[in-house]
Amino acid sequence: ADLNNVRFSAYRTAMKLRRLQKALCLDLLSLSAACDALDQHNLKQNDQPMDILQIINCLTTIYDRLEQEHNNLVNVPLCVDMCLNWLLNVYDTGRTGRIRVLSFKTGVVSLCKAHLEDKYRYLFKQVASSTGFCDQRRLGLLLHDSIQIPRQLGEVASFGGSNIEPSVRSCFQFANNKPEIEAALFLDWMRLEPQSMVWLPVLHRVAAAETAKHQAKCNICKECPIIGFRYRSLKHFNYDICQSCFFSGRVAKGHKMHYPMVEYCTPTTSGEDVRDFAKVLKNKFRTKRYFAKHPRMGYLPVQTVLEGDNMET
């Protein structure tokens, strides 16, 4: 609840998920270790239901292994209990005592420790046919299970609501309306950060930014060095904002919310500094009318839609 003051929904959701990921110790779980546990329990049929006992057994295998690697961080009974409850809250709201194997995999893999594209590849493979292709119905299953994660946090409206049909349509339009898509096309579409899935790449940026130290001073609260995300103005020279000022929407005199900014989750390179300098120079000659007419695109101040409304991704 204390993250509700973060104004931008993609970040608010990602920061909540980061708390959850750490509390469940899933930030310690590699994708290969997760796959080993799933194979050990023979969880190959993704549309099969898993009962509570099967979920507990598989989670116990996962956390036993994590305890061996991080014995001071992992309390197996507590982690199993919390992760079980989280999975049921996300995928079994009616408390039938069963969730699909696909749902189990989607939940655990979304929050595990792996490269973003490796997660996308793994999840796509779960819904693809044996030939490696995926039709609209199968993609719908994956996006449906994925959107349940922000939905459980009360954040689904910002990501297009529970209706995943516009996202499926968007993906297949991107693929020139082929009847089936392969993994490479799915990855290209995911790199565009479609609205229904944007919380996942942002979670990865939140994690990357946690330890980042930027040799810059926040123009609003004067924090120096800036820890976490750094927001650099592309309208004013040497104008930086730290993440807590940016997320709470604070602005200093002379800087408007609609001015272009660039976000860094890791310290900048000299090449990025030069590039940004050139952009600021260009923006110096642009009028106020230009910025009003060309607002920053992207999901930062996401326009929320009411749950259930159709929304083009």
Automatic annotation (TrEMBL):
Gene3D superfamilies: 3.30.60.90, EF-hand. Signal peptide: none annotated. GO terms for molecular function: zinc ion binding. Residues 213-269 form the ZZ-type domain. It is a peripheral membrane protein. Its main location: membrane. SUPFAM superfamilies: EF-hand, RING/U-box. One of its GO terms (cellular component) is synapse. Pfam families: EF-hand_2, EF-hand_3, ZZ. This is DMD protein. It comes from Xiphorhynchus elegans (elegant woodcreeper). The lineage of its organism: Eukaryota, Metazoa, Chordata, Craniata, Vertebrata. The gene is Dmd_2.
